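User: Is it possible to get a 3D structure for a protein together with its bound compound? The compound here is coenzyme A. I've pasted both below.
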Amino acid sequence: MTELTIRDAVASDIPALHALVESAYRGEASRAGWTTEADLLDGQRTDAEDLADILADARQGLLTAWDGDVLVGCILIARRGEGIGYFGMLSVSPALQNAGLGRRLVGTAEQAMADRFGARRVRISVIPQRDTLIAWYERLGYAATGETLPFPYGDTRFGLPKRDDLSFIVMEKALG
Ligand SMILES: CC(C)(COP(=O)(O)OP(=O)(O)OC[C@H]1O[C@@H](n2cnc3c(N)ncnc32)[C@H](O)[C@@H]1OP(=O)(O)O)[C@@H](O)C(=O)NCCC(=O)NCCS
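Assistant: Yes, that's possible. Here is the predicted structure of the complex:
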């Protein structure tokens, strides 16, 4: 990989973003990476409309990582109340995972949320069955708050669950 560029997404990035996110989260392509939702969910992770809504919302945005003109990573950042940031949709191209880009995207997102939203704490929500992912977030400084959120069963925009016991745990990190 050459030097990567990280920049804010724009509307013309949506087709590439959609393809990247689906390849990282869902289906056989995602199994080339070290963590995926393929065993938990079928269906889509996002779609062009969802991505356009994110880009049109002043409280949210997407940071994108580029190797030349190839999109290789992305992360959603959002303002969730006074001093609180949230990130999600963290995706690295499956073939390029485990080389430090995910960690770099999280660090860039934390800095962006501190600078843009005045975030002092960052929250994420993770499906509890994803133990290796949770362990990675713990190594990045996130800890479970004890809160849980329901999985949006019945809303196919978030995918087609393969099991009936999905939920989210909330994890949080105080920014230094
Ligand atoms: C999660 C994700 C963004 C990480 O990206 P990445 O570029 O691989 O991240 P990094 O290279 O910075 O870090 C990889 C970490 O995984 C660890 N790892 C690698 N293979 C592993 C395995 N088989 N089991 C457990 N941990 C593993 C590495 O040791 C490393 O940990 P460290 O940073 O503490 O050393 C990427 O796997 C992805 O896109 N997954 C699919 C989408 C997803 O699940 N997103 C998160 C949803 S909340």
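The chain has a mean pLDDT of 97. The first strand starts at residue 5 and ends at 8.
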